[in-house]
Write a structure and sequence with these properties.
The chain folds into 2 domains: about 90 residues, Immunoglobulins (Immunoglobulin-like); about 210 residues, no CATH class. Helices cover about 25% and strands about 30% of the residues. It has 8 helices and 15 strands. The longest helix is centred in the N-terminal third of the chain and has 23 residues.
């Protein structure tokens, strides 16, 4: 029995070869990544995305809101948000498209465009945000300096056909409104176009109020009568009017919806005011409606409240969309309706769904 055990022990089983262990998945991935890394420079260069660029179309108009005729030596500067200038030269065209403007996917895409021409007021706009998806269009206006009003389409009889609501408001408490308004349609450089500025101011404000939509109707629908005489008589930069008190309710609703900003201390700039609101659609040339709640008057059976509408150049000190200061257009520190005309027209062209600002007059070179 002992021998049998010994023989059985001598039969050793053949040793099997151990197969090499496969690398763990993570180890294999690291090796493959290392191999690829040695080839990366060539592959990355081959697949590098081309830098994105954008196109910008600049259209230039005159004081009649028409394409600038006979354009010569219009100097255009284009500057990106990093303050790098990409264009600075003169052109003999009023409709130009600039391509291959670099994009940065940050504030650098907020471009500035400035235009100038001898004998005209320089203009410009910022920010003009560019995109690779669409050609951005920027409409700018060059007006003569000095310039006067073209009131060809402005006489009261003409307005009765084209803007009858304006005439109704002008004659709300003034039976001789037609003659008095026509007397304002005058270009007299000797008094710095004072009477012409009064007429243009009325037309600017009424046109702008016609474009302000409220919950019910438009802002102009609540004006009942312009105040012609007295302490609240016509001014070169504003007018006072009697309005339906519901206008205050409608503007307050607009405030809650974010369409207006409330002026914190209206009495500081508007003596006797009880409340004041400014639309905030644009960076410049917004309508401000200031209410004098303690002043009331009956107009055609309706007890009205006094309202003081005007248009400021800029929404606030930090939102100067038009960069170029307009020299020589600030008589006595008052807002000039010629500047308002320019600013609001250009601002409106930058917003979708906004009617063109088209008061029934134009601006032209003095002496035309």
């Amino acid at each position: 029995m002992a021998k049998r055990r010994a023989r059985s022990k001598s039969r050793a089983k053949p040793r099997s070869r151990k197969r090499p262990k496969k690398a763990a998945p993570r180890t294999r991935a690291l090796r493959q990544r290392a191999v690829r890394a040695t080839q990366a420079p060539r592959a990355m260069v081959a697949r590098a995305a081309a830098p994105q660029t954008a196109s910008l179309r600049v259209r230039i108009f005159d004081g009649h809101r028409r394409p600038f005729a006979n354009p010569k030596n219009i100097f255009i500067r284009i500057i990106d948000g990093n303050q790098t200038q990409h264009m600075a030269r003169a052109f003999n065209a009023s409709d130009l498209t600039f391509t291959d403007l670099p994009l940065f996917d940050n504030f650098g895409d907020n471009y500035t465009v400035l235009i100038s021409k001898s004998g005209h007021v320089s203009a410009g706009f910022h920010p003009v945000k560019l995109s690779a998806a669409v050609t951005e269009i920027l409409d700018l206006m060059l007006i003569p300096q000095p310039c006067q009003f073209d009131f060809t389409d402005t006489p009261f009889a003409t307005l009765q056909q084209t803007r009858p609501q304006f005439c109704t408001i002008l004659s709300g408490i003034e039976t001789n409104a037609a003659a008095r308004f026509d007397a304002l349609l005058d270009n007299d450089p000797a008094n710095d176009f004072l009477t012409g500025r009064q007429a243009a101011d009325i037309l600017n404000i009424m046109t702008a109020m016609s474009d302000i939509n409220l919950r019910v109707g438009k802002a102009i629908d609540y004006l009942k009568a312009v105040i012609w005489d007295g302490k609240q008589g016509l001014k070169p930069d504003r007018f006072f009017a009697w309005a339906d008190p519901k206008l205050l309710d409608q503007v307050t609703l607009g405030l809650q919806e974010g369409h207006f900003d409330r002026e914190p201390n209206p009495k500081m700039f508007h003596p006797g005011a009880t409340d004041s609101f400014k639309e905030n659609r644009f960076g410049e040339a917004n309508v401000q409606l200031t209410f004098h709640g303690n002043d009331r008057r009956d107009v055609n059976g309706l007890t009205c409240v006094m309202v003081e509408p005007d248009i400021d150049y800029f929404r606030d000190l930090g939102s100067h969309g038009l960069l170029e200061v307009l020299p020589g257009f600030f008589p006595g520190g008052m807002t000039d309706p010629r500047v308002v005309f320019l600013l609001r027209w250009m601002a409106g062209r930058r917003k979708s769904g906004i009617p063109e600002f088209d008061p029934p007059y134009a601006l032209e070179k003095v002496g035309n």
